[in-house]
Amino acid sequence: MSDEEVMNNDDVDDMFDSPPDEPESPAVDSSEIDENIPAVHGVGLEVSAILGTAQMPVSQLLKMGRGAVVELDKYIGDTIDISINDQMIARGEVMIKEDRLCVEIIEMIKRTGD
């Protein structure tokens, strides 16, 4: 049995206090903080979204120069894994918004017991 379960969309919506387009207020009233949740503001986390992979011989890699293009095994709209500190926390969809490459979170992964 897996130690991960997929959260439904209502669970994901409940995780966010404000709409994604509104910036969060940097000031936090200490009376609003749940004493059961440890303070994590200012803690650095490494977020990874692997956009794809490619295999090639080292000889081909050594021949590459500036402007070389490496084709990956994923396409716009494909699902990818999103990790924080090497722990998978969500799945996302690769997309382009305006002129930027983006990843839209489509499901959160809830860890159950460790």
Task: Provide an overview of this structure.
With 114 residues, the protein is mainly beta. It has one domain (1-14, 46-114): Surface presentation of antigens (SPOA). Helix content is 11%, strand content 31%. The chain has two helices and five strands. It has helices at residues 9-14, 58-63, and strands at residues 4-6, 47-49, 79-84, 87-97, 100-111. The chain has a five-stranded antiparallel β-sheet. The longest helix is centred in the N-terminal third of the chain and has 6 residues, at 9-14. The two termini are 13 Å apart.
Give a short overview.
This protein is mostly beta strands and 114 residues long.
Topology (elements, then pairings):
Elements: E1 4-6, H1 9-14, E2 47-49, H2 58-63, E3 79-84, E4 87-97, E5 100-111
Antiparallel strand pairs: 1-5, 2-3, 3-4, 4-5
